[in-house]
User: Fold this.
Amino acid sequence: MAKNDSTTNDRAAVERRLDERLGEQFPLNCVPFSVWYDTNIETDDPKWAVNDEKGDAIVVAHNHVTAVKIADALRNSAKQGQVRRTAEKPFFSCNSKQDALFAVREGITLDDALCEASCLLSAAKDVMYAIASKDDAPEIWAAAYLVDMSKAVVDAADTSEHIDAMEASHA
Assistant:
């Protein structure tokens, strides 16, 4: 019996050291959906956890691979729910130093930006077709078709339902 108690105690000590090392290698942090080894969860199973932004375990997994897959799925799911926005994009240089006179503002929702781009391309398309109908040069028709194709791509990428309404209000 003494030998069994000794073996059990040795195994428990090894498991504690393993828990401590795993806890150091995969520490808890407050980045949402991080994978870490939780030495505080009271269970006989391995203690891999995925945390929320507060650092609380929201999912416990039996192994590291499963925890990583769960964390990746949660991250992807969270990204799909986010509203994407524009970055600042300067354009139209106005001097020899190439200083930009205008810029797309940062923080506009992509739906709104795509809708406005569609309206601008619609106006450009109308101008190009009007010029092309007066001057039958192939370069003008090519430019008109390129604007028309660009508008189609923007319209196809826009997930909002209000392009037609915005175009009507800008007409």
Observations:
- The chain is about 55% helix and 15% strand.
- The longest helix spans residues 110-134.
